[in-house]
Amino acid sequence: MKSTIITILKKELKRFFSDKRMAFTTILLPGIMIFIMYNFMGDAFSDMMTVDDEYVYSIECVNMPASIRTLLENTSIAGGLKDTDTGDGNEAKKELESKDSTLDLYIVFPENFENDIAVYNSTSGEKAPQVEVYYNSASTESQTAYKIFIEIMDSYESSMTNKFDINSDSSVQYDLANEKDSAATIFSSMLPMLLLLFIFSACMSIGPESISGEKERGTIATMLVTPAKRSHIALGKIIALSIIALLSGISSTIGTLLSLPKLTGTDEGSIDTNVYSISDYALLAVIILSSVLIIVTLISIISAFARSTKEAGTYITPLMIVVMLIGLSGMFSNGTKTELYNYIIPMYNSVQCMIGVFSFEVLPMGMLLTVITNILYTGIGVFVLTRMFNDERIMFNK
Amino acid sequence: MEELLSVEKLHKTFKLSSKQQKLERTNSKYKVAVDGISFKAYKGEVFGLLGPNGAGKTTTLRMLATLIKPDGGDALIDGASIVKEADKVRQKIGFLTSELKLEEYFTPNYLYYFFSELHKVPEDIREKRKEEIFSLFEIGKFAEVKVADLSTGMKQKVSLAVSIVHDPDIIIFDEPTNGLDVLTARVVTDFIQTLKERGKTVIVSTHIFSLIERVCDRVGIIIDGKMILCDTLDNIKAGQSLEDKFFDIYKETVGTEI
Question: CA A125, A127, A130, A135: dihedral to nearest 10 degrees?
């Protein structure tokens, strides 16, 4: 029995390791990709969370005690602290509602904060002295300033066993990011990657079947001996695959838009897809369509090159990881890129345009360049695919 | 006899990958698959290309079907050159390979119209031709049944049907009975006979002696890419069985037993 197990075991291992491509994609590729992705994500995360070193915060403080000012002395927000007495603070709060505001934080301490916390007994059951910190989560600078301040205050509070509370009144909205900015932040960070992946998955499931599948079944030869032009066959396939991928992309987009508030834990009205107009959706549709064309073309070329659908799947996997990485770049970027060369890089240009649409920062020239270059790349792809249909080594290799 | 196909010194060399070099046990980076083959085929005749696996039969037929380009020689199909007038040639030929496996989601009806469209069959004659072809193969009552649900024999009939939607004068069959059970193989041989009766020219490649003996008028024996013998079936057999004759020729040519 033992020898049978070993015989079977050896046969299975030999079968696996005899296929070098399979061994590479199964064993080595995941490790390499995870290493690249995690490194990339780490860098991107730090990029996203880092505010320019030269940036001078603008923080309005009401009744800030000297002791707290001392605590903040060595932090990057120290230079931006300004004492103010803005009455009810409505003006400052209104300013903070815009993510492009020059004001980053509005902090309100009780009038006699130091005295209040000195006399406060945490076991008395009375309400602790309140510190209010107003910020805008849609602004990276405001969010960063908020985090720095809260960190310092938390450590100060823990050193004196819960003598005060910060933002504890649930009836007050401290995050002043408006609906539009909240939606822009969440959608622009998540949707470009999700959309690219949905479109890619749809293309991945149909592309290889349509081209390498036809090679395997011999039906492509039957089509190629007809008088039909090979460029027409190539274009017909690409358009058909694009329509299917587009339908899948639309379905995925609708599903995502409906479920994103739940996914991000913001389903209580703070995120609303109604902030986008018809023209925003139209722009998005144009970008998605041009991205679909590029992805379908790439997958079609890979499928034509592969000898079987299985082999096509093996080749497409690394491309999917690249697309995922490009999608992730949108997740960690702070707004759209303004340099036009970013809009001629396939896929990356689509991500930049999607960020632009979702964050209401569309760069018209970038958008135009993206659509034109994507159509151009698709044209080149159709030409390459036609050449491949004409190439006997590719179409009839076994 | 009206000459419909004239093959002149057709030549094809393939570049070998290192894996193929190992398989072929050769250091040469190239393999001559077809080495100056010439033959003719006439209207209403069934011409058989007989040879072992790897002899060059499929490569020859693929060149005639304009799927691959010869690197030497030419062939005229009803006057059109496979090298210079591939588009014209494609209008004149039907091509079927044993490798063909029709997509299972489609019905015979759909496939007929699909290939009619690709072959640019005029719309006004499509229906009439469909009736003819479907009645010839008795496909009619299965016209709306998906290929997946058809029997193997019926699938083969549909494959044959779609290869002649444009009523070509020359039909090229590459190993048409390979891997088929006896009943389905019979469908193919009957079909070749019918085509012959209708005055079509059929070029068929095979390594199955019985198929050649049953349907072919003339035979070309290919070994190692070369046309060793090309004559009528009776002249080639010269009183022997085709199988015995073939092995005698093979031994003489290759110089070894099989």
Answer: 100
C-alpha span between B150 and B198 (Å, rounded): 27
Residues contacting residue A184 through CB under 8 Å, at least 6 positions apart: A99, A138, A275, A358, A359, A360
Q: Tell me the residue type at A91.
A: E
Q: Are strands B201-206 and B226-232 parallel, antiparallel or unpaired?
A: unpaired
For residue A25, what is the DSSP state? I
Dist. CA B45–CA B41, nearest whole Å: 7
Which residue in the set B66, B91, B100 is minimally distant from A222, CB to CB?
A: B100
Whether this model's pTM surpasses 0.90: no
**Which tokens hold the place of A275?**
């902030």
pLDDT given at position B35: 92
The CA distance from B240 to B246, in Å, is 10
Inter-chain touch B67–A225, beta carbons under 8 Å = yes
Count Cα neighbours of A18 within 13 Å in the Cβ-side half-sphere: 7
Q: Which residues of A touch B99 (CB under 8 A)?
A: 217-218, 221
Amino acid identity of B99?
Answer: E
* pLDDT, tens digit, 9 for 90 and up, residues A349-389: 998 898 888 888 888 999 999 999 999 999 999 899 988 98
Q: Is residue B30 classed as helix, strand or coil in its secondary structure?
A: strand
Phi, psi of A247 (to 5 degrees): -60, -40
Q: What ipTM was assigned to the predicted interfaces of this complex?
A: 0.85
Q: Single out the residue of A190, A182, A164 nearest to residue A65, CA to CA.
A: A164
In Å, how far are B48, B83, B213, B248, B252 from B245, measured between CA atoms? 15, 34, 12, 5, 11
Domains of chain A by start residue, with CATH: 2-45+181-395 (no CATH), 59-103+105-138+140-176 (3.40.1710)
The better pLDDT of the pair A277, A261 is held by A277
Whether chain B has a CB inside 8 Å of the CB on A394: the answer is: no
| A225 at B interface, C-beta within 8 A | yes
pLDDT in tens, A232-241: 888 888 888 8
Per the structure block, which two tokens stand in for B128? Answer: 């009439």
pLDDT, one tens digit per residue, over A155-211 is 888 877 777 888 888 788 888 777 777 777 777 877 888 888 888 888 887 888 888
Read off the pLDDT band of B228 (50, 70, 90).
very high
Q: What type of residue is B27?
A: N
Q: CA-to-CA distance for B137 and B158, rounded, in angstroms?
A: 8
| Number of other CB atoms surrounding residue B245 within 10 Å | 18
User: Are A138 and A177 contacting, i.e. CB atoms less than 8 angstroms apart?
Assistant: yes
Per-residue confidence band for B258, with pLDDT thresholds at 50, 70 and 90: low
B119: chain A residues, CB-CB within 8 Å? 226-227
Tell me which chain A residues have a C-beta less than 8 angstroms from the C-beta of B69: 392
Chain A 153-192, residues with CB within 8 Å of chain B CB atoms: none
| Residue B34, SS3 per DSSP | strand
